[in-house]
Design a protein that fits this description.
alpha/beta, Beta-Lactamase, five-stranded parallel β-sheet, 10 strands, 48% helix, 12% strand, disordered C terminus
Length: 491
């Protein structure tokens, strides 16, 4: 359906779409469009943004509320970036700037319909998962929330072991990859740590790396239950509590032998729930990072940088009521969730070795919304303020800037949550001092100069000053968590 108060524009759009196989109705106002929607079924609505009485944004809200299966495309005579961002955040599938070519109109409509089909399939999948959960034994509130709203985004096999390397949980994707069922695997050692056969030497290397760096990543050939071999990429991450004590290992396994797309799977219930829940929180936060093995100990360093900054800020009178031991513990535990939304970023953008194009950068920026929305959905199912509340405000806001030029919401100053302001600084410092797939590392001294240069623009001045007072502690963390900067090396 085409909705526009200008009859010439309305007829032109209907003719273009009709000539290309689309059946179109037309309406000259929001009220007329709503009457059509109540009596007939539509897949897509193209609506002018500015109309008398009620606008295209009003129609968008009505459609999202009462007809959520309908794709809405906004048409505007102005290429207003702020308006476009607000429209997309409000649920519009896309927008067209007048005047538009026939090709632009058709490609926008086809893309919106394809996105709508994907949305409907995902809704069906979610309902199937919910039905499956109702038929299964109750597995615990936190497990269920995390599994449904975060972990179902991954196609990777996952194993969780205790500190003695005994398997306490495997997910359905891993069972599908290997052919082994969870009853055979629970309580056993993962083959790479067995020290048997071709894994004899590799087991020693993996254990050494876990003990010194807290992680290991590499490729290996493993056996399926039917004795056939497959080529796997494996990332192992050691999980620690806020006191630095290791208590679990998370294995992320991807089949790279045939590059097949594996259906998203629902994790089975965790064993030893009390300890495994904490392991799951940190381990799941590492899922996005595990897709970029080169960044190594990023989350461990981030946790410690955030803890140091929070401790130092807590000494100031202005923060004493806000920052206590509970605040420090929560930001330590929740900071790894800052980039959880990257599970929704395509690999060709997330892992691109060169500079992103403007279009790719816009896609990358959506990881804040993806992560924040997922954590918000999970948070709504838990009473009170939990680690999900902290993770949600960090995920949404860690790319906001103190002067209001950040994203996604353009918040400024103290309107940005303190947790997100702390994470923003810690994340920037680690990004500068670490080698990434798209850049080389920067020395600590040059990194400090760049960060302090942005004091009051990008970063909260109080946090920048706290860093200067605790720079030595930052260097100690960096040196102890990275082979790039061994303790004995001069910067």
């Amino acid at each position: 359906m085409v909705v526009d108060d200008d009859p010439i524009t309305r007829r032109a759009l209907v003719e273009i779409l009709g000539a290309n196989g689309f059946d179109c109705d037309q309406a000259e106002s929001v009220e007329e469009a709503l009457l059509y929607l109540k009596t007939q079924t539509y897949t897509c609505v193209l609506t002018d943004l500015v109309m008398p009485e009620r606008s295209g944004l009003d129609l968008l809200q009505e459609v999202k509320s009462s007809f959520p299966d309908v794709a809405v495309i906004l048409i505007s005579g102005h290429n207003d970036t702020v308006m476009v961002r607000n429209a997309l955040k409000s649920g519009a599938y896309d927008y067209v700037v007048k005047p538009a070519t026939t090709g632009e109109i058709l490609s926008t409509v086809n893309a919106a319909l394809k996105k709508r089909d994907t949305y409907l399939r995902e809704q069906d999948d979610r309902e199937s998962l919910r039905e499956s959960l109702r038929e299964k034994e109750e597995i615990g509130m936190v497990d269920s929330i995390l599994f449904q709203d975060i972990v179902q985004s991954t196609i990777d096999g996952i194993i969780l072991t205790d500190i003695s390397h005994r398997i306490i949980m495997v997910n359905p994707a891993y069972e599908k990859l290997t052919g082994f069922n969870r009853r055979e695997l629970i309580g056993t050692l993962p083959s790479i740590l067995s020290g048997v056969g071709r894994f004899r030497d590799l087991s020693h290397q993996v254990n050494h790396s876990l003990g010194t760096r807290g992680s290991w990543s590499g490729e290996l050939i493993d056996d399926r239950s039917d004795r056939t071999q497959w080529y796997a990429h494996l990332t192992i991450t050691r999980v620690k509590d806020s006191r630095g004590h290791a208590f679990a290992d998370v294995f992320i396994v991807r089949d790279v032998s045939d590059k097949k797309y594996l259906e998203q799977q629902l994790l089975e219930r965790l064993q030893e729930v009390q300890s495994a829940q904490d392991a799951a929180v940190i381990g799941f936060a590492k899922l996005a990072e595990c897709r970029i093995p080169e960044i190594g100990d990023h989350l461990d360093r981030m946790q410690n940088y955030c803890r140091i900054l929070a401790e130092e800020l807590g000494k100031l009178q202005v923060y004493r009521e806000e920052i206590d031991d509970n605040f420090i513990d929560n930001i330590y535990k929740s900071s790894p969730l800052h980039d959880i939304g990257k599970v929704g970023i395509p690999d060709h953008i997330l892992l691109k070795p060169g500079r992103l194009t403007p279009e790719e950068y816009e896609v990358m920026k959506t990881h804040t919304i993806i992560g924040g929305d997922a954590l918000r959905a999970a948070e709504e199912k838990l009473p009170g303020r939990s680690f999900l509340s902290w993770g949600r405000e960090i995920a949404y806001n860690h790319h906001e800037k103190f002067d209001g030029t950040g994203y996604p919401s353009g918040l400024s100053g103290r309107a940005i949550p303190l947790s997100a302001r702390i994470v923003a600084f810690a994340d920037a410092y680690d990004a500068l001092t670490s080698k990434r797939i798209y850049k080389d590392k920067v020395s600590p001294e040059e990194s400090k100069e760049r960060l302090i240069r942005d004091r009051g623009t990008h970063f909260d001045p109080d946090i920048a000053d706290a860093f200067l007072r605790r720079e030595g502690d930052f260097l100690a963390v960096m040196e102890s968590h990275s082979e790039e900067y061994p303790a004995s090396q001069e910067d």
